[in-house]
Amino acid sequence: MKIDLHTHTFPAHKAPQVLAALTAYANSINCPLRPYGDGTLADLLRRETAAGIDRFAICPIATRPKQHAYMLKFLGALRSGACGEEARTRVIPAASVHPDVPDPDVKLAELKALGLKLIKLHPYFQKTALNDPKMIRLLRACAEADIPVLCHTGGDVTAGGPPMATPAMILEVTEALPALRLVCAHCAAWDSPESIDLLLGKSIRVDLSCQTFGDMDTRVRRFAEEHPQDCLFFGSDWPWADPGEHAARIASWDISPERLAAIMGSNAQALLRLTEQLTR
Questions:
Q1: Is 71 exposed, middle or buried (0-12, 13-18, 19+ CB in 10 A)?
Q2: 42: left (phi over 0), alpha (psi -120 to 50) or beta
Q3: 148 preceded by cis ω (within 30°)?
Q4: What DSSP element (H or E) covers 92?
Q5: Model confidence over 3-26: pLDDT tens digits?
Q6: Beta strands across the sheet bearing 91-92
Q7: Residue 221: CB partners within 8 Å, gap ≥ 6?
Q8: Coil, strand or helix: which one is 86?
Q9: Mean pLDDT across 193-217
Q10: Which run of H or E residues covers position 174?
Q11: Looking at residues 219-247, what average pLDDT do you find?
């Protein structure tokens, strides 16, 4: 089973404006970001099929506490088949909780009842640093509920502000919460040289999603080739990269078949405890 742990979609009526706004901001700070598709679920299904990807997580971000209702609606629609039968069988149920909610354990239990497999957090869009007490409280609740977390780490070319998820913060959090099953998106802060010095070789889970400009691709390749094999996960971050192109790039590196299989699916299957067979 091949798994893309990191994708995003937007409602069809909002996708053009969202992609235009995020792209415009990135380009305004001289980052050549562009979308690979229209940002809709239908387009993502087509592109993952073309890439040979079986399952994928769509990772919404709760930018306000009241969006918990949307997360429940999203998971309910996936589970019922309201998003289509193909989405029901292929999309891995993921959702987000905002760090400001007063009862994260209750919110997580409600999501878990609808089949939740993964929580997505984003310090920049949630305006809460990775090592902020509110984020630590939420991460502790995820650990106690035994729910894996995929968290944006490093900078963000679509958001401004001070650093919110640095390699040093990653170490602080993982040392404070050893039971937390945290996956650090974007290769654990691929935009920071400290990711190599502080994190490479440690038992810290990372996804290999990245934007291929500057020397970022070089850092991601080092993680793919040198990091502990069981800590590596494939993520495309679609629509900001094409799943097929990124998978082919990783496969072209100096990686054994066993390591490549771990990256492309078996690690994610174990993390998410996916035992069911694909039925499409």
A1: buried
A2: alpha
A3: no
A4: strand 91-92
A5: 999 999 999 999 999 999 999 988
A6: 3-7, 55-58, 91-92
A7: 253
A8: helix
A9: 85
A10: helix 167-176
A11: 95
Q: Does domain 3-272 have CATH number 3.20.20.140?
A: yes
* Residue linked to tokens 């429940």: 72
pLDDT for 215 equals 61
Within 13 Å of residue 105, how many CA atoms lie on the same side as its CB? 6
Name residue 119's beta-bridge partners.
95, 149
Q: Where are the domains of the chain?
A: 3-272
Q: Return d(Cα 88, Cα 12) in angstroms, integer.
A: 18
User: 41-51 and 243-251 are packed helices; what angle lies between their axes, rounded to 10 degrees?
Assistant: 30
Distance CA 208, CA 149 (A): 15
The 8-class DSSP code of residue 262 comes to I
Question: 132 vs 34, which has greater pLDDT?
Answer: 132
Q: Taking Cα atoms as reference points, which of 179, 171, 130, 181 lies closest to residue 152?
A: 130
